[in-house]
Amino acid sequence: MSLEEWQIVWFTAWVSTLSTVVILPFGLALAWALARYDWPGKSVVETLISLPLVMPPVATGLILLQLFGRRGTIGGFLHDKLNLDIIFTWKAVLLALAVMSLPLLVRSARVAFEGVNPRLEQIARTLGAGNWRVFFTITVPLAARGIVAGMILAFARALGEFGATIMIAGNIPGKTSTLSLAIFQNVQLGEDAHAFRLLGVSVVLAFAAVWTSELLLRKRKS
Amino acid sequence: MSLLLKSISLPLAPFTLEVNVELHGRVTAIFGPSGAGKTSLLDLIAGLCSATSAFIRLGDQVLMDTSKRLSVPASQRGIGYVPQDLALFPHLSVRQNLLYGRKFVHAANSPLDFERVIEVLEIQPLLTRGVTELSGGERQRVALARALISAPRLLLLDEPLASLDAPLKAKIIPYLTRIRDEFKIPTLCVTHDRFEALTLADEIVVLINGKVCQTGPVLEVFNRPANADVAKIVGVETLLPGVITGSNEGLASVKVGDVTLTALAPERPATDVFVCIRGEDVILQRDSGAPSSVRNRLSARVKAMRPEGALVRVELDAGFQLSALVTRPACTELDLREGESVVALIKAPAIHLLPR
Asked: Which residues contact B93 (CB under 8 A, 6 or more apart)?
């Protein structure tokens, strides 16, 4: 494989991992809030989070472009106040992957949290553990399978993300080019050998992710 | 240590839990039929739910005062809670379960000796096991030990024996009495079983449909229910302290006041016992009559008679207060009247001895 191909593989794996890590605290907090509490606006938030799952990714990308572009509400603010540009940089790739994979993590983690008997958390509190301690020593370990499954799904979704990414990050070689984008481009250009090599790498990456998660879960169980 | 529960009001599905009591007992039984709000009361004391109004004081610390919007968080209350489903943490080993609360022990408490709790509850061989591999009785002991090791100032037990079958119950009860006598932690014990209440508690709160119907020493409440509702729940029986003076071939001689009764010897050897006799098991006759298999024949005097539906409850003075339940026709036939003498017959197996 060429240096350029390695660079694409490395960038994709790295940005997908980063995206999964970045959405983890938000995703768990959201899943927890949805699983355990009733609050005003809950159904609106539920729907908003799930929207990227059902909308065409390209449409989600367009919304993000409107929001984060230099003339967009958020993008304008970031540009003016923090001198930070998102669109057509690696940060745009991260943003696209995060938004597209968040619903998968939230859904999976929420179901897992709902499966944890609240009585166990209550009794942990009577034993003197504060809320954070209870969350990390009782809730998360008992929901671990669902959380890990959600992370794998999110990571896999990030690896394969195409539509939203191309809308807000473009396909800039050496900057924002990911595996999916590169495979598509190579096929378009008739560079099938390139495309197939990248395809092989995708398979290996996906395989490794699922394999690792199975190992982790088996270790937890024993 | 006293526990004050004042102006408590907590709406539950069919009724509102209303409690106003001050408890001083070593072990207080919260007694009542299922669905009376007993578990909700424990949850409230432990700080696991809120109430419309509540003032809770343990010793000199106010745990909850809704009028001041004050509620000490459950983690700060120092109250050990063994719920009915035990809530053992399934992802932790027995040892990890036991040590879970140890890390956060309430500053004001002297931590109980871990080794001592393990010894008293005989948990040593279970320590490395997973909690999912334990039997019912073992799980019960581990849950008790976990609560004790967190060095609580108050122990809440929700139906500690309800999920166990009779032989297991008999095994766990000694552990509970050992906890009571060894660790001396004030305890609230929810139960709907009169024998549990008798063996474990010295004070009782009768809770029916969310209302406290009677409080007081266990024997007093059981012997003198305040009203018909309480009587129905606790079941009226003759209940007396007695002393076993001797036993022979499975039969025990029990001295109650000046009278000696013959009963089946209790499973566990004991000298001080409660003598329980159900009213239905007392047979009345006019004269001592022909010899029969009945072991206990007592000359008695009728003190009072109260109709109860198709039956009549006859209060007798047989050297001790004895309550008999007979049918109305039997009453008429025997021509029972207050002040008259009768002979009360009680078969030995009908006298239940309960170690105290």
From this structure: B127, B128, B129, B130, B131
- Type and span of the H or E element at A47: helix A42-54
pLDDT of residue B107: 47
For residue B310, the model assigns a pLDDT of 80
* Type of residue numbered B340: E
**Looking at chain B, which residue has its C-alpha nearest residue A144?**
B91
Examine the domain organization and report whether B87 and B135 are in the same domain: yes
* Spatial distance between the Cα atoms of B79 and B151, rounded to a whole number of angstroms: 8
Number of domains composing chain B: 2
B274 CB contacts (<8 Å, ≥6 apart)? B198, B219, B239, B240, B241, B242, B353, B354, B355, B356
Q: Return the H-helix or E-strand segment holding B226.
A: none
Nearest to B104 among A119, A129, A141 (CB): A129
Per-residue model confidence as pLDDT tens digits over A43-68: 999 999 899 999 999 999 999 999 99
Residue B104: band (very low, low, confident or very high) from pLDDT cuts 50, 70, 90: low
Same structural domain, B273 and B143: no
The residue among A116, A127, A140 with the most chain B CBs within 10 A of its CB, best to mutate, is A127
pLDDT of amino acid A79: 87
C-beta atoms of A128 and B150 within 8 A: yes
Are residues B314 and B222 located together in one domain of the fold?
Answer: no
Q: How far is B161 from B166, CA to CA, in rounded Å?
A: 9
User: ipTM for the complex?
Assistant: 0.81
pLDDT in tens, A155-183: 999 998 999 999 999 888 889 999 999 99
Q: What is the DSSP letter of B93?
A: B
Residues B28, B89 within the same domain = yes
Last residue of a domain, one of B235, B262, B282: B235
pLDDT of residue B192: 83
Query: Which range (B264-273, B290-299, B310-319, B320-329) has the least confidence?
Result: B264-273
pLDDT at B111: 58
- Determine whether the interchain pair A128/B103 forms a contact, defined as Cβ–Cβ distance below 8 Å: yes
B147 to chain A, any CB pair closer than 8 A? The answer is: yes
Beta-carbon contacts below 8 Å between A and B: 64
Predicted confidence (pLDDT) at residue A221 exceeds the cutoff of 70: no
**Which CATH architecture fits A3-221?**
Orthogonal Bundle (1.10)
Task: Select from B208, B235, B262 the last residue of a domain.
Answer: B235
Those of residues 58-117 in B touching chain A at CB distance below 8 A are: 73-81, 83, 85, 87, 89-91, 100-101, 103-106
The residue segments making up the domain with residue B338 are: 239-355
